[in-house]
Automatic annotation (TrEMBL):
<dbReference type="InterPro" id="IPR009057">
    <property type="entry name" value="Homeodomain-like_sf"/>
</dbReference>
<protein>
    <submittedName>
        <fullName>Recombinase family protein</fullName>
    </submittedName>
</protein>
<dbReference type="InterPro" id="IPR006119">
    <property type="entry name" value="Resolv_N"/>
</dbReference>
<comment type="similarity">
    <text>Belongs to the site-specific recombinase resolvase family.</text>
</comment>
<keyword id="KW-0233">DNA recombination</keyword>
<dbReference type="Pfam" id="PF00239">
    <property type="entry name" value="Resolvase"/>
</dbReference>
<dbReference type="InterPro" id="IPR056911">
    <property type="entry name" value="Phage_Znf_bind_put"/>
</dbReference>
<dbReference type="InterPro" id="IPR006120">
    <property type="entry name" value="Resolvase_HTH_dom"/>
</dbReference>
<dbReference type="InterPro" id="IPR050639">
    <property type="entry name" value="SSR_resolvase"/>
</dbReference>
<dbReference type="InterPro" id="IPR036162">
    <property type="entry name" value="Resolvase-like_N_sf"/>
</dbReference>
<keyword id="KW-0238">DNA-binding</keyword>
<feature type="region of interest" description="Disordered">
    <location>
        <begin position="1"/>
        <end position="25"/>
    </location>
</feature>
<dbReference type="Pfam" id="PF02796">
    <property type="entry name" value="HTH_7"/>
</dbReference>
<feature type="domain" description="Resolvase/invertase-type recombinase catalytic">
    <location>
        <begin position="84"/>
        <end position="228"/>
    </location>
</feature>
<dbReference type="Pfam" id="PF24623">
    <property type="entry name" value="Phage_zn_bind_8"/>
</dbReference>
Length: 277
């Protein structure tokens, strides 16, 4: 087997799919030589990216138990290139603006940005899943390439510590880093080793911040209520409408007809008639 054969070129790299080391053919789950090399392995050889399969050499006997063959000169470990950033932006409602996040991600040199207007209460966030899928695909194709998920702030990713820790676990499994562009812990974090502790701190901090905002909102509403300011939309039922509704209802007119004539909902009318009974 010469060093110019496709099989030899492929075997200069470990297989990211079956974990065969450099110099060893790809193997099945039973430990036998596979009939062709895994795609994940030979895409590391630029000249073979377009190949659909690379057959094993004749002396490897596909289907038979693996035996040590002639040593293959291992290719030097590839030097990682510049980090690839995948951006994600989110706001909760249609009325909120998203452009400031998109501008910040553009300044961070994100290769691709995914954005959506969706509440963090909704577990399924399609654009976030797309961002994670693309990051995983890049990492699989180039294991030595740093891949970073970039967000403006932590609360754009999840609503509580549990969700953030679940995301941290997924990023750790996939070898993807996380970058925060604002907040007290601005920077890039690797969810492995000491980075896992940082992720835990980030998760708790985000939940504490969320609870703080909720508490301040409730305090503000309570203070306003004591001053006579009631939040929410103004009532559609005033005293005049209620008087007309009672009179028409007493004459035997249906609730549906009364509600339509007064341009209010049947539920609202039922509630006020019940309160006045």
């Amino acid at each position: 087997m010469t060093t110019n054969t496709p099989a030899d070129q492929v075997e200069r790299h470990p297989c990211p799919k079956c974990d065969s080391p450099a110099g060893s053919p790809c193997r099945t789950g039973a430990g036998k030589v596979a009939s062709s090399y895994h795609t994940g392995r030979f895409i590391l050889v630029p000249a073979l990216k377009a190949e659909l399969s690379v057959k094993t050499p004749a002396d490897r006997h596909p289907g038979s138990a693996w035996k040590q063959g002639a040593p293959v000169v291992q290719a030097p470990a590839p030097m990682p290139g510049a980090a690839i950033r995948i951006g994600y932006a989110r706001c909760s409602t249609v009325g909120q603006e998203l452009q400031s996040q998109l501008d910040a991600l553009a300044r961070a040199d994100c290769t691709r940005v995914f954005s959506e207007k969706i509440s963090s209460r909704i577990k399924e966030r399609p654009e976030l899943e797309k961002a994670l899928t693309l990051a995983r695909e890049i990492k699989t194709a180039a294991p030595h390439q740093p891949v970073i998920l970039t967000v403006v702030e932590m609360k754009r990713l999840a609503r509580n510590a549990a969700e953030l820790m679940t995301l941290s676990s997924a990023l750790q499994t996939d070898g993807i880093q996380l970058e925060l562009l604002s907040g007290p812990l601005t920077g890039v974090y690797d969810p492995n080793g000491a980075g896992a502790i940082v992720f835990a701190v980030l998760a708790v901090a985000a939940e504490v911040e969320r609870e703080g905002i909720r508490e301040k909102t409730l305090e503000g509403l309570d203070t306003a209520a004591r001053k006579g300011n009631v939040g929410g939309r103004p009532s559609v039922m005033d005293d005049d409408k209620l008087a007309v509704a009672r009179a028409r209802y007493a004459k035997g007119e249906s609730v549906t007809a009364i509600a339509k004539a007064l341009s209010i909902g049947r539920t609202t009318l039922y509630r006020h008639l019940g309160e006045s009974a």
